[in-house]
Amino acid sequence: MYKLMLLLAFSLLARPAALEAQQVISGNVRNSETGEAVPAVSVKARNTPNGDYTNNQGNFRFHTRAPLPLTLVFSSLGFATQEVTVTTNAPVQVRLQPATVLGTEVVVSASRHVQRKIESPVTIERIDNKDVINSPQTSYYNMLQGLKGVDITTSSLTFTTVTTRGFNTSGNTNFTQVVDGMDNQAPGLNFPLGAAIGLTELDVDNLEVLSGASSALYGSRGLNGTLVMTGKDPFKYQGLSIQVTQGINHLKKGNGNDPMGPSPYYDWVVRWGKKVNDRLAFKINAQYTLAKDWMATDTSNTNSSGTRFTDPNYNAVNGYGSKTSVDINPFLEAAKAMDPSLAPIVDPLLAKPSNYVARTGYPEYGYLSNEAKLLKLNAEVRYKIKPKLEAIVSGTYGEGNAVYSNDTRYALTGYKLGLYRAELRGEQWFFRAYTSSENSGNTIIASPTAQLLNEAWKPSFNPNTMDGWYPQYTGALIQALATGSSLQDAHLAARSFADQGRPEAGSAMFNRLKDSISGLPTSQGGTLFLDRSKLYNAEFQYNFSRLIPFAEIIAGLNYRLYKLDSKGTLFPDTDGPIHVAEYSAYAHLAKKLIDNKLRLGAAFRYDKNTLFEKPRITSRLSTVLEVAKENYLRFSYQNAYSFPSNIQSLQSTLMDYNTYASGGSARLLYGEYGFDQYPPYLLNSVLEYQQTNDPSKLKRFTPSDIKPQSVDAFELGYSALFGNCVLVDVLGYYSTWKNFIGYVNVANTPGTTDVTAFKERSKYIAYNIAYNGAETVNTYGYAASVSVDMSHNFMAKANFSSDFLQNRNNSQINNFNTPNWKFNVEFGNNGLGKKQQLSFNTSLRYKPAYFYAIGLASGTIPANVVIDAQVSYKLLKAHSRIKLGATNLTNRYYYTGFGSPAIGAVYYVTLAYNVF
Fold first, then answer.
1. Treating both helix axes as pointing N-terminal to C-terminal, what angle do 469-482 and 343-350 enclose, rounded to 10 degrees?
2. What is the CATH number of the domain that holds 46?
3. Alpha carbons 510 and 360: distance in angstroms, whole number
4. Could you tell me if residue 83 is inside a domain?
5. 0.85 cut: is pTM over it?
6. Are 418 and 396 in contact (CB under 8 A)?
7. Is 604 inside any structural domain?
8. What is the domain range of residue 36?
9. pLDDT tens for residues 392-421?
10. How far apart (Å, rounded) are the C-alpha atoms in residues 131 and 511?
């Protein structure tokens, strides 16, 4: 009986349309100029719920109970909409006329409903799948840096962070990233790991970037903007697609930026979309990227302007292990006490208040793995219960290696992320539930791991034996001075002596020590954090426009639960996972007036986080006025906020590792719970350390509970389409930030509040604390873009943007890391010749020099000009395309973040099947 029921259910699933249909409508759609099949064309039977999309051969077929004659509406981006009347069941042959896309693009994320981009109430940028195909970039994610007002930081080949309007850093917690309606942040870290569980390269339908504040529609952490990624519908995009990219990078070994020689680059992508029948469709995606990563090689000294040859306290930005720095005056005094005859040598040294010496560090190359890889898998099934009621189940999994920069470099080795959803979607509503999970893998925290490695090989100082690296260094220094060496040469000789037998990077001993330290959890004295956090989210939204016809009203509810699970290595969760919940309700209202020339909008959102007593209410008010045909003036006010990230909200030990000679610790420390609740930190005696090595310049730092930060943003913009061939957009914005969250380096001497105790640095604990600045911070800027359709498939684009920060709190690391101005230019053609087989695209990005600061270090990013280019040729009979391209064509290495690697060229060839 059970098997019979299953058989009956399957037969109903596989052939429901055949049981109900009275008419079968079919046909073929082709490009009127080239005769080429046009896939993914929307075919709708007017005044019915029935329709289809053309497949990769341009064919369509659907069932309808509506009687003939029927009017079919054919529409696709890049083609003029066409209507055809059908009077018989004979297949329909349609030829679509190519048309400009300018002014026809539609967006959804600006107001949570479909509208033309030119009529959007806020600034929004869009990339569609055709842009991805014609881009010279090897990844759609890197295409974002060419958009107006967008900044990126590339920390490694597989980890790029996106933001807008100035606040740019690696791992930005104030930028929201949404994939098919799901927030794809790493649940514990509260920022997305680039495109790790984003869409695969062949599954991008479109990307939309909302600039600036967007909390009213998308909740907490939308202060710096929102990226909304939409994958391809398997009903619309059908067939098997394959794309293989083979390339080469690291072509300038030994130029100071790149220690590696030429290395292969591989990127393989496959997508299979299948419409089983009118109701059932599925897709499967896979992408694998493998290459040698860019390595950070900045040798700038964070302690002074000296070099490793001239400064005994040398600590390179990308040198790891040399943050262990001790004043050797006590060792000099001890040597003099044991042998008073050394006074003529030692006394001139002791005349200085301090003589700091850093241990020898390891460069990143040879220490951190340079194997960049990323595997992404995705599967989705869609079933139409009714023509306008659809069920969706999907799963996305990503794993790989990446590196990002914060207070040091973090090599995320073997991380794993998962994102899974179930959704019901009606014409006016949807209910979506999803969960995401993370596994931090074997993450190498560069600086502390190297410091502990140095200590494991040879302790800085062993009080039991009165020996160690620093006593040996001091003895060798005195010996060299006694034999007539200069002070500089004596320091070099002392380091050489103390470093005798030090394991070389990559040696068996080095790897054994590194693995033992990085494989031991922070809670047990190592540097491994065990993040196994999860996020659960449920959301319901309803469009009331049919029930309330005088206005467009959309409202929704959202519930989110974080299950923070780090086994005591990231959060104070040694007794079990910590649960943090967020409750939200939102509404968006819009009304058209004055013959639909004026559109007023308002959005409101209520959010409550269980870590904070007070809820947050945010809003957006907007006006769009059509001042002339295809000329739109917009004004908006947006209020946005962010609850501090889970790490910021929970006072915890993000990193628990020895830093200094006597076993002190350096930690990133945050506070929402009272600072005095965790006695090991003794934060009532915290003092701020100004990185000058001068105790007299320390000042007391008074911590307090961290609060949500907020921003009030005003924007005035203008969009216009001239002659159907020139699209212009200009804007200006002004924002006011309150309770701005920044970071500061502080230091603590357990058991004392005496500032002079800091003279011996080996006896204090250093922290990096997030806190609210008292000052009100203002940002402002302006931007403009122009797109020109030059006919015959030629397109030129240019944009300019500018961002400024006022009232900078210089005691905070504020992550406002962007030049005051920058511009991008693009020129290309997506179809040359009679059959439009040849295409090309070029882009140029320019940024002047600008200041960049993060916890790791700060400095000036040099000015850079980056050119990307590609040329493609279609093999029509093979339904394939060959692309030759290069990113950073001139191979002039450039930086996007201080302490991050210099980026060189990638030259590549791509063979794509069924990708048009």
1. 120
2. 2.60.40.1120
3. 14
4. yes
5. yes
6. yes
7. no
8. 13-96
9. 999 999 999 999 888 889 998 999 999 999
10. 45
